Amino acid sequence: MPHFPKPAEGSWTEHYPELGTSPVSYDDSISPEFYELEREAIFARTWLNVGRMEQLPKVGSFFTKEIDSARTSIVVVRASDDEVRAFHNICRHRGNKLVWQDYPGEETSGTCRQFTCKYHAWRYSLNGDLTFVQQESEFFDLDKADYPLASVQVEVWEGFIFVNLDPSNTTPLREYLGELGKGIAGYPFHELTQVHKYRAEVGSNWKLFIDAFAEFYHAPVLHAKQAVAEESRKLVGRGYEALAYEIDGPHGMVSSWGGMAPPKDPSMVKPIEQKLRSGLFGPWDAPDIGLDELPPGLNPAQHKAWGLDSYVFFPNFMLLIWKPNWVLTYHYWPTSYNTHIFEGTCYFAPPKNARERLAQELAVVTFKEYALQDGNTLEATQTMLESSTPVKTFPLGDQEVLLRHLHHTARRYVSEYQQQQQPAKTPVRA
Amino acid sequence: MPTAPLSLPTEFADLDPFANWALPSERERYAKRLASTMDELQSFYDAAFPRLEAAMTYLEQFSMDALPDDAKHLLWLYCALVTVSFPVEVWRQPRVPDSGASTFDAILEPAI
């Protein structure tokens, strides 16, 4: 018996008939060949979130981003005209990586007046123009104007910086983010400047970790020990149901209740949570961030028990907006078909005092404790999916509709790409 | 890692035996948790938890950008209490159960 109403079709999944309801193959998560296609069809062609405007506070501020899945490294900079620009991180002279510290594979950030290559000191302005060539007279008919840094499309949505590595892309970022992006425009993300960021190397396909975070069906079971015993039994008995799901194009969202911030009864939560008035759902006492009214896309069911909305912006960016005025983002950066780098970032309003700082610390550390359990489960899943077991398809429930949609979308992008590239050949099945 | 324990406000001298928990980053606090026995975690928790409300009241007299050094150390120590609350209150072991070899490292956190 559902606690929350479902669409007229009887389920969230059937509300989106293109998804079907049959068991799903996870071949798209265990195949090196399919991953190579994803790199071309998805990561080299869609808008990817690489950071926030707060990382570029002034002219000359820059950061680099390794995007192995699209076979490149980029440098993102606030240029002289105050506009954000992005470039492939390569010197035009002989291909050295332009911006890096000590270890070429590690990301870096800082502030500079120009970019100078470590190798032969060729220099580029913040706008990407080649401005200096060491011993220029030794070169043959070299016109510096012919050798700017290779630029990358970059656009900013609500302070989130996105790049698109396809020079022929014609879809503006806002159009790509669609109705779900539009529905949360105006949220005061820029007020949330207290940032805690975590990174993990995960031994699974990138989609499997999105799967783990795109459903809360697992939460009462996998994380049972995180609640006090009586509460935990109640949660398992009740199971999990979302307030609503929405899917628009390649993106999806789940809207969830959040009865734990604050809990109805303090004895439901651990002593540290009672004392610090905080926990997984964030600090219970929401700071004022100038949010008089929620943007229209949030809490689509208009439910009074609303606790958070969790967005999956295809391919690899998740954005969680919590009722007590904080935000969490997840990024999944593939490094091979069965490994990826996960980044989890918590954004809070700057704490006014130590009490608020400790409440935030508890929310962050709680997130970490959960993520460690989630991350470990993924390796277990990946190894079995890759094993020789005859189990090849998996039933997904209605609370897993976003997973069904994610894998459906990845396969659709790959198959459309294959059709564009080789119209004569039959698409590889996955 | 500091070699000598850091100073705490005199009002919290009772916590001096645990001043080596006053570590400035979550990474260090978590590493110390993993390197401790449950007895060590429990005794730190038992000493610090009852003083949590008093510590917050004490620390609230300062704004976050004007914390004197000893107050800063006290706040670090209470961030460490957050870190050890999980093994003491729920896990009964220093490591997160079912977390195997997985790691999850802070790469950016606001300095106190």
Overall description:
The complex is a heterodimer of chains A (430) and B (112). In chain A, 25% of the residues lie in helices and 25% in strands. Chain A has helices at residues 12-15, 32-43, 173-183, 206-213, 219-222, 229-238, 271-276, 354-386, 401-421; strands at residues 24-25, 48-52, 61-67, 72-78, 84-88, 109-111, 115-116, 123-124, 130-132, 151-157, 160-164, 194-202, 244-248, 251-257, 306-313, 317-322, 326-336, 339-348, 393-394. In chain A, strand 3 (61-67) and strand 4 (72-78) form a beta hairpin. Chain A starts with 11 loop residues before the first helix and ends in a 9-residue tail after the last helix. With 112 residues, chain B is mainly α. Chain B has a domain at 17-90. In chain B, 46% of the residues lie in helices and 4% in strands. Chain B has helices at residues 26-34, 38-48, 52-59, 69-91; one strand spanning 105-108. The two termini of chain B are 16 Å apart. The mean pLDDT of chain B is 93.
The proportion of residues forming helix of chain A, as a percent range, comes to 25-40%
Going by helix content, strand content and strand pairing, the class of chain A is alpha+beta
Number of helical stretches of at least 4 residues of chain A: 9
Instruction: Sketch the major β-sheet of chain B.
Output: none
Shape of chain A: globular
Major sheet description of chain A: 7 strands, antiparallel
Distance between the termini of chain B: 16 Å
Oligomer: heterodimer
The global form of chain B is globular
Rg for CA atoms of chain A: 23 Å
Percent strand of chain A equals 15-25%
CATH topology of the largest domain in chain A: Naphthalene 1,2-dioxygenase Alpha Subunit, Chain A, domain 1
Order of helices and strands of chain B: HHHHE
Give the overall average pLDDT of chain A.
93
Radius of gyration of chain B, taken over Cα atoms and rounded to an integer in Å: 14 Å
